[in-house]
Amino acid sequence: MLQVTETTERSTSTPATVDSFKDEFLRQLRYEQGVELGTASRDDLFQALAKTVRNYMVDNWLTTVETQKAAGSKVVAYLSAEYLMGPQLDNALLSTGLTDVADAALDSLGLSLDHVRATEVEPGLGNGGLGRLAACFIDSLATKNIPTIGYGIRYEYGIFRQTFVDGRQVEQPDSWLTNGTPWEIPHTEQAVEVRFGGHTEQAIDQTGRSVTRWIPGETVLAVPYNYMVPGYGTANVNTLRLWSAKATNAFDLHIFNSGDYEAAVRAQTVAENISKVLYPEDSTPQGKELRLKQQYFFVAASIADFLRTLPEGFDLKKLPERIVFQLNDTHPVIGVPELMRILVDERGLSWEDAWDITRRSFNYTCHTLLPEALEVWSVDLLGRLLPRHLEIIYRINEQFLAGIRATYPGDELRVRRMSIIQERPERAVRMAFLATVGSTKVNGVASLHSDLLRDKVLDDFSAYWPEKFTNVTNGITPRRFVQLSNPTLASLIDETIGAGWLNDLERLKELEPYAEDASFRKAFREVKQGNKDRFVSLLAQRDGIELASDALFDVMVKRLHEYKRQMLKLLHVVTIYDRVLKGEIKAADLTPRVVVFGAKAAPGYKMAKEIIFLINSVANVVNNAPELEGRLRVAFPANYNVTLAEKLIPAADLSEQISLAGKEASGTGNMKFALNGALTIGTLDGANVEIHDLVGGENFFLFGMTEPEVQSLSDAGYHPTSFYEGNASLRGAIDLISSGIFSGGDRTAFEFVISDLLYKDRFMVLADYQTYIEAQDRVEAAYADQESWSRMAILNVARTGFFSSDRSIQDYLDRIWHAPAVPIRK
Ligand code: Z16
Questions:
Q1: Any keyword Transferase (predicted)?
Q2: Residue 2 pLDDT level (bands cut at 50, 70, 90)
């Protein structure tokens, strides 16, 4: 029997043999699923397999919990409303080192691991970059043995399933829990009560001090569900704890006491709606009451959960030595007044002591520059939902503004600018300001982004507190996005520089000399070709989309947003078609190209949805144009998610990162592509700036205005029509869209999009069009020389080890958290 050799430490303490694995799998199937092998459904097989693997992690998990508790050192509490985890089975197999064992065990039963793993439904508990970042970060924290709890919400419905009906996006609910998930362990007995509404009262406590009491109107139970987060190359297994809302019998005291049974039952449903569904907006939140309830719900539960783990009689002044709360965007910022409330109202600390503790316990990561993405909550709504918290926010603001007035006497304009409370268009709480005031450190997510935060969005704050501001450039986990998604590249790297790079990604540097090695380049191209073939067959089976795999794969995958400029990519496609139609270029001279889009639009974002319709309409015509046969294809598979990303990114030659400079905070897809050997065509925006610096300008297709150039054009007055009128190629593309050729002759079909481009174009698509087309021409020329292209691609892999999320986490530890590792002895 195959025995796994223990080369590195694993997240399993029991060395598994194929026989023991098989026995446990059969036991799961029989006694947990209640089926015979012969009659088991594919889902039965998956559930049994997943639970088998899960159980191999449990011993190390329990040891981790005990060891970290005994160490009593600082815990990182990552507070995030989103975790976009992706499928879990392969990652669990990788960290336990059980992949080969599972493969052999299933094989001996006449089953295929590939077949079974493909049924896994991914938990889509996030929108995009921010949620995926949280998932990468907890992976790296576990790998680095840092005591961590990831806190979040167990949405019953994650990000919607996107379908296309006649080219238009239609959203379907994501019922990821229909068959249950093998990865979670609920603990109803550890539920925490979370309160809402009601009013506050002044009272005198036993010691004769005046205290405020919050008399809430309703109570909801937060039930924790635990998920194991295994590290790689370590026995450490951390915890992700997601909260689910459950009604208490006395949810709404008023209705409960009135004896109206039906109303009381209805009220239960209302309570449980809190964790029902993920809000599907990425970067442009809607100010919905239920969303604020979600935020307070999970943050209040998380803080209470941590505080109850402290020993009896713990001196709360030492809290910042025991915990650091990281705010992933403003979504959890209500935690700042919540901790104040607990310390002052419930634990009897003075306001000053409580403020000192609170400020030292929180840090804030900002993920955006778009003004419309900065959350504000109306004072009206906040006061109704959380009356005591609003009082606390007012007092925090008073005290903060007193400090501002002392430093800048007479500068009332500045006071108004910096106030946590905005007066117009309505009185509302600026959550980013509250987060900044309530935190020790504030960080942006890429170098350019942090500079712009400091110098533009939060400039008054950085002038007042210069040492508060720092940068931590985002990263991605190489376990999922190289090893698991691109196993052939990972093997090639292993063979070339030896193992060990997967948690020491700067070692990819050792690949640099091989860029000059013709046989390595050939092997590297074979890896890429294999990934294209794999993607092509997946797409045929998943979407019925037929593609040729001997083409340049040009990929743009990310949320649909005007600032990300999918329109610019589409104008390139239309330009090629227009040039061919006009005979300006011969189709035969074109490099065969497959353009792949993947993008969900927020359901209420009309412009984004119209752009999706336009992309599908163009694809439909281009893909059926005989002139373009074998030269240009556009594929837009619906429902881009982590599962698809893992197959698509390794197949890409060209990575489209074309946002308007100064708008994309970081981007993380850009990093995944580079590490998988795609070249970037991009603007100097977000982390592209750092990618460009690291790989070198000669290995990057740079175009477009810089952020200062964008600023001056905007200051000077931007007129998109002048770009349209002054550029024949651009005019050709836009006129072709307006001609009705993509809409069965209907010239008005895309008016909504086109007139916005011509008369508003907030993200300056037309201004960057010309340099983008020129950069694409450079791409064509470069791709024609495959040896040189491979050299560039290899250097992209070799030079982007910096973007491991292990490095991001090390930066958080050094600059912000200062939490020591607690290694687990097996
Ligand atoms: C989000 O995904 C991001 C920002 C934001 O304010 C809200 C959401 Cl849901 C993204 C940024 O757009 C992206 O640039 C960045 O890479 C990502 O967060 C992670 O930092």
A1: yes
A2: very low
